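Summary of Year 1 activities. Much of the first year was spent building the evaluation harness for sequence design. The harness presents a backbone, in tokenized form, and records the residue chosen at every position. We chose the following record to illustrate the format because it has been used consistently in internal testing since the harness was completed.
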């Protein structure tokens, strides 16, 4: 068993599950979405991106692209959350939390594609 591959797969699946955990709940209810879970999902997603550098295969390039998409969407979601809580005079409104959760949903989709690509790469390597 390759320890590097296990760590790689662990972080990819962890990024998906953390992001999915944040995404679940009523889209316009801030009580259903924990800011620390968004923070953890963003950090783990960025770790995944760093782990994907150096893979020179076509699937590796696609996995890096999906990771960059997830990072971008999670960072924008965090910026919107920070704006709503720290700068905006109205606080976290249903419109703001809906935007944050929608961006997180896009990152979930990118993470699902990344996991599917990981499974495809595993099947191709086994043959």
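For this record, the design step produced the sequence shown next.
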């Amino acid at each position: 068993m390759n320890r590097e591959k296990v760590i790689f797969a662990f972080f990819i699946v962890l990024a998906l599950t953390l992001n999915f955990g944040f995404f679940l709940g009523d889209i316009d209810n801030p009580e259903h979405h924990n800011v620390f879970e968004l923070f953890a999902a963003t950090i783990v997603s960025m770790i995944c991106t760093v782990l994907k550098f150096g893979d020179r295969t076509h699937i590796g390039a696609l996995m890096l692209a999906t990771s960059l998409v997830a990072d971008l969407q999670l960072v924008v979601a965090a910026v919107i959350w920070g704006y709503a809580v720290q700068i905006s005079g109205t606080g976290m409104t249903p419109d703001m939390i809906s935007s944050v959760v929608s961006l997180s949903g896009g990152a979930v989709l990118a993470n699902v594609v990344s996991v599917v690509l990981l499974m495809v790469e595993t099947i191709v390597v086994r043959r």
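The chain has four helices and no strands. Quantitative recovery figures across the full test set are reported in Table 2.
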